[in-house]
UniProtKB/TrEMBL annotation:
NCBIfam families: RGG_Cterm. It comes from Lactobacillus kimbladii. One of its GO terms (molecular function) is DNA binding. This is HTH-type transcriptional regulator Rgg C-terminal domain-containing protein. Residues 109-275 form the HTH-type transcriptional regulator Rgg C-terminal domain. Pfam families: Rgg_C.
């Protein structure tokens, strides 16, 4: 069964019209074409439709005929779900996605399972969520220190937690030197993500001088629409670091403003994580 046909089946079972089913997610004319398989719905919109109508994501994808969609498209949809769940710290959804992958016949099944297991381990903050074999797979997957590409740095971004601090710092600096002047916005987005992770690790170890140097490196990468989220996060971390060296209320006020901005764009769980960082690293009162 195709995505369009399955959506129609769920909608009719719920006794809803197309307009009631889609709410404000997409336009009625566009959705009508989706049900007829005349156009493709984005992964983000599909996920929102399922969530809005209380349809379990894992159950929905298990019912799809995987032969009707290309391996690449299905993989992109599943990865999009993982990304959304990761930024919302939604462990329940990640476990549902894991069940979906486990029940699939995808050729990339092992790769996707490794990815979702890695994300769960990252959120949990412990390597113990992964087997020794999985950790070794991650270490062997891309490690070419002299010549990275966008695929390898993306993998590194997601797997930094599984390396020791010194190795992470060496690789981060090499990646920055190779790509700091790239005109590819997607690469710059990943590089900034790596810097954010590395700075966070520095803060965990109270290595504020190293964190400050990494923030200074991030200033060399120009802000683009695609990199705004990472730049906002880096600005927050910079204020935490500034407060450490010069504990003025203005830096806490800046943090509070940035936390509020993330909350306003529905990054509620992320803003809560930033709140925790402020409390742990400054002990100050947010204005």
């Amino acid at each position: 069964m195709t995505i369009g046909a399955l959506l129609r089946q769920y909608r009719l079972q719920a006794g809803k019209t197309q307009r009631a089913w889609i709410g404000d997610v997409i336009s009625p004319s566009f959705y009508s074409k989706v049900e007829k398989d005349l156009t493709r719905i984005s992964a983000a919109d599909l996920i929102e439709l399922l969530r809005q109508n209380h349809v379990k994501i894992a159950t929905f994808f298990k019912q799809l005929d995987y032969q009707t969609e290309s391996e690449d498209n299905l993989k992109k949809k599943i990865v999009a779900q993982m990304t959304d769940a990761y930024y919302n710290f939604d462990i329940k959804r990640l476990k549902e996605i894991k069940q979906t992958i486990a029940g699939s016949q995808l050729a990339s099944k092992n790769e996707l399972m490794l990815r979702v297991n890695s994300i769960l381990a990252i959120i949990d903050g412990t390597k113990e969520k992964l087997s020794a074999a999985e950790i070794q797979q991650l270490k062997n997957k891309f490690f070419n220190e002299e010549n990275f590409d966008w695929k390898t740095i993306k993998i590194f971004l997601n797997c930094m937690v599984f390396y020791d601090f010194a190795s992470d710092m060496i690789i981060t600096n090499k990646i920055f030197q190779q790509f700091k002047d790239s005109d590819n916005d997607n690469i710059q987005f990943i590089v900034l993500g790596i810097l954010i992770n590395m700075i966070s690790m520095c803060l965990e170890k109270d290595k504020y001088q190293e964190a400050k140097q990494l923030v200074e490196k991030s200033h060399e990468i120009h802000t683009q629409p695609l990199t705004c989220f990472n730049k906002m996060t880096l600005l927050f971390l910079e204020n935490i670091i500034n407060y450490h060296f010069d504990p003025q209320q203005v830096y806490l006020d800046n943090c509070a403003r940035q936390i509020e901005e993330f909350a306003l764009i529905d990054m509620t769980e992320f803003s809560k994580q930033l709140q925790k960082i402020v409390q742990e690293k400054t002990g100050g009162n947010l204005g």
